[in-house]
Specification:
Rossmann fold, P-loop_NTPase, 6-stranded mixed beta sheet, alpha/beta, 4-stranded antiparallel beta sheet, about 35% helix, 7 helices
């Protein structure tokens, strides 16, 4: 069975939460058990009305929240068992769109986009710039924006957010209400990139405050869930 450079099998689930109970005092998430199983190419649509809770749940999936019980495994690897270097390398395989963008306005938007891949991977800078530029054009930007995020329009920041999330052909996408205020052209480009990512085996968690955010994408999802204080629950009819 083939293994990649992180030592995981291509047949491993991309994400597994196994009775994962976060430490409330260290995270802010309620100390309840979370269970989730996502295989390559699967998509979980998760309704969560609290943006902060959605962000904390995404943090849980990336191994950033300590557990009191259970485990969180990403691509077959237990976050708690990884040394820092391997954990950061694994995070380099995850694309994320956060609710507030998470932009650092002291630096150009291009650096905000490139930094996660520069920090977590060994991909040459020139290759990253070339790929990011192509993605920028795909999502409606003239290229790779160099102005600070605060000097871009809100829409262009959303386009840049898409570039950052899809850069590096991630194996897992964590999307916190990603399509809010998307015009039709950006939504079409986003869905096209999402479909391509899933076709190559990327698993997806798409969090949104209600099901209207998915604009008919629900039929393409593998799971429909709701995130409450007391855990994840299947939506009726899913």
């Amino acid at each position: 069975m083939a293994e990649d450079d992180l030592g995981r099998s291509a047949l491993d689930p991309v994400l597994e939460l196994l009775d994962a109970r976060p430490r409330f005092d260290a995270s802010g998430l309620f100390s309840t058990r979370y269970n989730l199983h996502l295989n390559p190419g699967e998509c979980a649509l998760i309704e969560c009305r609290d943006p902060r809770q959605a962000s904390l749940f995404a943090d849980l999936c990336t191994g950033l929240i300590p557990l009191s019980e259970g485990s969180v495994r990403c691509m077959g690897l237990d976050w708690d068992a990884l040394e820092d270097r391997r954990a950061w390398a694994l995070r380099g395989r995850i694309g994320r769109m956060v609710t507030d963008g998470g932009w650092i306005d002291l630096y150009g938007t291009h650096l905000n986009i490139l930094w996660p891949q520069m920090h977590h991977t060994r991909t040459p800078l020139g290759t990253l710039v070339e790929k990011a530029t192509r993605l920028g054009i795909r999502f409606g930007l003239p290229g790779l924006p160099v102005l600070p995020p605060g000097r871009l329009s809100a829409l262009d920041r959303r386009r840049a957010d898409c570039v950052r999330a899809f850069l590096g052909e991630p194996s897992l996408l964590l999307l916190e209400n990603p399509v809010e205020m998307f015009p039709s052209d950006l939504y079409a480009a986003f869905l096209s990139a999402l479909t391509e990512a899933r076709d190559r085996g990327c698993a997806v968690i798409w969090l949104a405050p209600d099901d209207s955010a998915w604009r008919g994408y629900g039929q393409g999802a593998s799971l429909h869930l709701r995130l409450y204080d007391d855990g994840l629950f299947s939506m009726r009819g899913s």
